[in-house]
Each structure stands twice: as structure tokens, then as C-alpha cells.
Amino acid sequence: AIGKEVEQGNEPYFKFKNFDDADSHLSTLLSSVKYAKEMLINGLFYLSKKGYVELLELMIKELLRTSKLTEKLLNEMPNHEHDDIFQFTFDLNTTDQFGNTILIIASKFNQISCVKLLINIYQVLHDLSKLDEENENESNLSYLNLDAVNNEGRSALDYACFNGNYEIVELLIS
Length: 174
Known about the structure:
Helices cover about 60% and strands about 5% of the residues. It has eight helices and two strands, in the order ββαααααααα.
């Protein structure tokens, strides 16, 4: 496709002048994919901080579906150099630049409904798997680490205690 148009119907899809031009476009695409994945994860932290539990639940479900779909598609295709960029593995224990998990953020900002959702996510996913023909959503989920600590050595329970939020403390210890 280098030096030629790659067509979709009658419209040119890409037109590369030479190999360097194609390589530059590929590099831009790969950077964009990596950035998009980072922004999706950052969105989870924002939703957890602000207490948008319905959106948080929806986004978690969609990220799990995306993770499973990319895994399935990449397994069906021959290996390529950049498969790791396109693979999207979702982990509830992912951390931000300060080592906070989504659960730590929800607890730190007293978002009881988000803490409940995260603790009960397995039931949510079980309900979702009943609607999903492939029934594979639960197997794609890592366990939520209730004891995770951030870079300051604080856990979700530490923040709940510090904030005097007995409801979150009870959720975390039960």
C-alpha cells in the first residue's frame, strides 16, 4: 500500500508517499491508541472521584467487553509487531501516577455508591454475563485488591477511617 491509495469503496483511505511516510503514520496511530487507552483509564478515576456510579458501572462493563474482544481478535490473527499496543487488558487494580486504585479514589472522596459498586462488581458482571451470549465477562476480571496501598502507603480503608466514613469502613471490612 506504500505509494498507492488504499481504497474503501471509491474513496482513498490512505495515501503514502514512501515508506518513511507510512512509518510516520503508523507511529502516530500507535501513539494515539496508547493515549486513548490511558484516557479511558483516567476516566474511571474521574468517575470514581466524582461519584458517577452509573457511568462507572457502564464504563467498566464496556472496558471488559473491549478487553475480551481485542483478545479474541488478536488471537484469531497472525502475530504482528504491534499486537501489544492494540491489546487492551482491563484490570480493576490499575493505578494512577500516585499509586491509587479506583477503589482508593472512591474511598478517599467518600463515594459510597462507587465503593459498593466496586466491591460488588462480581455480582454486576454475573448479571451481565446472563445477557452476554459468550458468558466470558467474569473470567476476564482480576480480583479487586481491597488491601492495595498507594505511594503514600495508604489503603481505601485508611482513607475511610481518616474521613470518619463508617459506612465505607463497614463495606471494606465485611
